[in-house]
Amino acid sequence: MPPGFALQDTGTGLGAWNLTDFGYLPDDTFIATGKTGDVKWIGPNGPKQLIHLPVEHCCDIGLTGLEVAPDYATTKHIYLARTIAAPGGFTSRISRWTVTGTTEPTGLANEQVLLDVPGTIQLHSASGMVADAAGNLWVSVGDNTDTDTWHAEAFRSQDLNSVYGKILRITPSGAGVPENPYYDAANPNSAKSKVFARGFRNPFRLSLDKTSGLPVVGDVGWGTWEELNYVVPGGNYSWPCFEGNAPTPGYSTQPQCNGVTNNPPLWTYQHGMAPGQGNSVVAGFVYTGDSYPAQYKGQFFFGDYVSQRIWTLQYNAQGQLTQAPAADAPFGTGLGGPVEFAAAPNGDVVYADIASGSVRRIVYVTGNIPPVAKPTSTTDPATRTVTFDGSKSMDFDGPTKDLTYTWDFGDGTTGTGAVVSHTYPASPAKFTAKLTVTDKSGGSHSDTLTVAPSNHSPVVTLGTPGDTKKFRVNEPINLTATATDNEDGALPITWTTQVVHCSEETTCHVHADAGGTGGSFSMPFTSHPDSRLEFTATVTDSQGVKGSKTYVARPNEFKLTLKSNFPASLVISGESNGNVAMVTEGATPNLIAGAKATDGVASFSKWDDGSTNLSRAFTMPAADTVVNATYLTPIDSRYNSDAGLRSLLGAPTGAEVNDSGTRYRAYERGRLYSSPQTSAVAIYGHILSKYLALGGHQVLGPPQNDETGTPDGVGRYNAFTGNWSIYWTPATGAHNIGGPIRDKWGWMGWENGILGYPLTDQVATPTGGGQFVDFTNNASIYWLPTTPGNGTAAVYSQIRSKWLAMGGATGVLGMPITDELAGPNGGRYNNFSNYASIYWHYNSPGSGAWSIMSQIRDRWYFDGGAGGFLGYPVTDELTTPDGIGRYNHFSNNGSIYWTPAYGAQSMCCQIKNKWASLGWEKGYLGYPTSSEYTVPGQPTWRRQNYQGGFITWTPNTGAYDHK
């Protein structure tokens, strides 16, 4: 501990490994409880028995909790938590008692039962209690689940209709408190009405924050982590789905954990004995006294029973950590086994040390701290010589080598030294000796002990199965004992047992187990992992001298190894929590396999005994054993489970290949592919050949579906992740289509649409820069990066035939830049990249499709296009006989003529007819130099100018020419 701090020990008379709890009374005396049922008052003259209560005491259960009511001065009420026998197991009972006696406690009376919690496993029962100023009682209840392996009962911690794994808040009558988050006014005695928070494993101890009134709970961990939690109303602290901040092996993958998220603890530390580690957290309280140095005010003190350490931390008003414990420098180490913390009336931190049976008060002393005398003795009855040993004495602020030891032997003589021997006179039978230890600063402390120099220690003889015998789980251990004493003869024998649990030899801790009396004792070997049983036969003679012998029953352990064909998380739950452990014969640990191998691809399939459960029980045989877990990739899983697929593809011809996440395996007649984006799918035959010829998954991506028939029953296809497909028909063979072209084809109805099936692979356009696919229904889709929309244009039927007749993509029109679109009056058209179009109309001559380009098209558009007075083109753009001009004729008896000198000029109707009758451009008028226009001043007259004159039309004269 830091300089200036010391321990003041007060004996409780309950003995080592029996003291469980204590609570101060207003007069600075306290009451303490023993696991075996004793309740004692520790007053000025030492311990005094108040009552012995019958309890079931083994492992974690017994008389485990005590709370002094805040109004004790007027009510004399205390609360006890104990386990009593019940059919099929036991009951954890929370009761309120009244302390009898006027000037000092003399007994307990008037039990009122507030809560009964049935139990079957001698672990994680109701244990922690805190009474608040409003008269309500806070109770911590564990999950009552075994620790050796995975158990479904642990999920009761998540069930609001169960009290297991909860922090409860109940009224003085045992009902739920109306302010509880799940209180049901119609059923105040329901479990849900009593629940304040859930998701705990073994919330052994708790305290209430003096500012917020909320609990701070220490939750003892299972495999890896200990937790301190600042508990809010309705909070879910995630057990068994999480331990610490990590998913719990064996539990987190179960469906009951769906939707349960991690609720980070206030503080968590890992199992082990390294600095900052431990194995059994015990929550304390926030120090608010004035006797310690100022920096400790507001610090939360807590401890660990196994590692025998005490730490401090600090949190704010919101329950958030503001100062973490000093992992490499705890407040104190080697301080015994703390199992309860409480504040002395002056605020000092006091804790129950189960290892010594003492209540230890941490005091701060300015100046010299007196040493602590701890005398022991051994006796040689034949010579009445007693050897005294004071070497266990302590000095908190100096080395013990500087202590001086003075002995008063009680017969008028004295001696000095840490270890001394003294021969006593023939009488009397007993003497009281005293040891005084003094430090270099003059501080001193004395302690006494009684010795009986002539008394022989009783001798215990054990009958055992032998020191080399090792035991399987539940194998009976049969022991006998006899005891003799020179003075008293035969003595009655008391048996005690304890389970010594050692996940590592440095982290051993004990759980008291069943006891008994008589000359024989038998019990089955424990199923607790990493544990041995210690049986002690003890006798006490008339002088109070004890004799004992201990037999250690050790497990018959064998090596259990979990292996898999893919690297994977494999856990022997409750043992090493790794994939290798020494396991007792007959133990039934859970074997837990990760759902996925570490590559994230292969999935768990089965254990080698056929079990397909990720978590399963396993009974350990009497031999080193290897258990194998089989993982299958999606490809192997699909192939192994589908007889029809195996028949289709045939036998494998090579190992599975992994190419940057895309996996495939070749078979006699095809392949299976899988990827992070796809399941395992089959590709074979002509489509596979085309796929591989095009570069396979590196170009098109892995297949997304098995080869599948098209709805019309004619074709087959596979789709690929790169937005590609390959389609096959008997008539066309296999062809690829992808990207925007595939998107356009799909939008137009796939193979059932107007385009039909792909007739060619998707290839580059002849002029470069684009791609195209031809289709069976006289159709094509072209893609150019400059085409509006997604870059694609579909051309088909008569328009496509006309386009191909004019040279297609390399012809005068260029490539299509629009889909075939609807024109006026039932027409259709496509636009092309070389400033051109093809228009089709069902009344147009020939195929109905005619091209129009450049300036003639511009003039046509200016005149209203297909919906204008000219109508649809009925010729392609043609050259005049003299080779100078270009022209199109249109459906409404119109034409547009173009010359280099005069551009494109439109004409129609009677004016056009007159010009034609005069010999077209070969007549005297020559080419048009203007389009038809209204004569100025004559709104009903029309005129068109020509090289050699003009033609005028009036309603009265019709069309006439003149120079």
TrEMBL record:
Q: Which Pfam families match?
A: GSDH, LGFP, PKD_4
Biased segments, Polar residues type: 444-458
Say which domain of life the source belongs to: Bacteria
Give the residue ranges for region: Disordered: 444-467
Query: What sequence ranges are listed for the domain PKD?
Result: 399-451
Coiled-coil ranges from the UniProt annotation: none
Q: Which GO terms describe its biological process?
A: carbohydrate metabolic process
- Database matches in InterPro entries: 6-blade_b-propeller_TolB-like, Glc/Sorbosone_DH, Ig-like_fold, LGFP, PKD/Chitinase_dom, PKD_dom, PKD_dom_sf, Quinoprot_gluc/sorb_DH_b-prop
Which protein is depicted?
A: PKD domain-containing protein
Organism, as annotated: Amycolatopsis albispora
